Amino acid sequence: MPHHHKIWIVEAALTALAGCAPGVRAQAAPAPSAHATFTVTVAGQGQPIIMIPGLASSGATWDGITKHLEAHFRCFQLTLAGFAGVPPIDDPLLATAREQIAAYIRDNHLDRPVILGHSLGGSIALDLAERDPQLVGPVIVVDSLPFFAQAWLQVDSLAAAQPTVDKMRAGMDAMSHEQWMAYTKFGASTKGIATAPADQATLVQWGLASDQKSGILICQTALDRPPSLTTTQ
């Protein structure tokens, strides 16, 4: 599906939600994130929506959608640790991010926020909804699956995917920093995500500002996930 069609679908879903959103009213500013797995940018007022970007991407991924929604939604744009210039962490990112986003919702008394996630962010959104369903409202997922290997490798189980997954893991582990940066600059993994050349260049710059170890571990974790919503890394 072309990228602009995906954005239209997300906007349509959120516009429908906006019709049920509370009226604009003064609200206290949220506490800055005290959690090491992400930074937060906040805009707008109304029903809260937490926006989680994909691999090696900034929360600025959601700038265009935020402009459309900020009259009705209080938009929390997250950038995850290790990506787009945010320092990495040593703890497993996916599980820790899920736990700390849940804590952020509690700390700031957010009332069942909408959770919007793209790709990696979609995995976290699904996992958050499974683990803490009482905390979240609607969940909108763009380009993400509970079991990536099925779509990528056309298999029905992790065991069937394992030989190919092991080869892919070995290839990623063998990459030098120079090879990783050259792969990022080439943009093979981002050309199909954005249609505008300027947006493709932005994705490359975010990738170059991201931590190689974090990126490899997340890719490997996505491949190693069993066909369920449960995050183990």
* Architecture per CATH nomenclature, i.e. the level-2 architecture of the largest domain: 3-Layer(aba) Sandwich
CATH T-level fold name of the largest domain: Rossmann fold
The chain-level structural class is alpha/beta
The largest sheet has its strands arranged as 1-3-2-4-5
Report mean pLDDT, rounded to a whole number.
Answer: 80
β-sheet strand percentage? 5-15%
* Helix content range: 40-55%
The Cα radius of gyration reads 18 Å
In short:
The chain has 233 residues and is of the alpha/beta class. The chain has helices spanning 3-18, 63-69, 93-107, 120-131, 148-153, 158-173, 177-186, 197-208, 212-224, and strands spanning 38-43, 47-52, 73-80, 114-118, 139-142. The chain has 2 domains: 3-142, 3-Layer(aba) Sandwich (Rossmann fold), CATH 3.40.50; 148-224, no CATH class.
Descriptive account of the structure:
This protein has 233 residues and is α/β, with parallel strands linked by helices. Helix 4 (120-131) links the parallel strand 4 (114-118) and strand 5. It is 46% helix and 12% strand. A 5-stranded mixed β-sheet has the order 1-3-2-4-5, sandwiched between helices. The chain has 9 helices and 5 strands. The chain folds into 2 domains: 3-142, Rossmann fold (3-Layer(aba) Sandwich); 148-224, no CATH class.
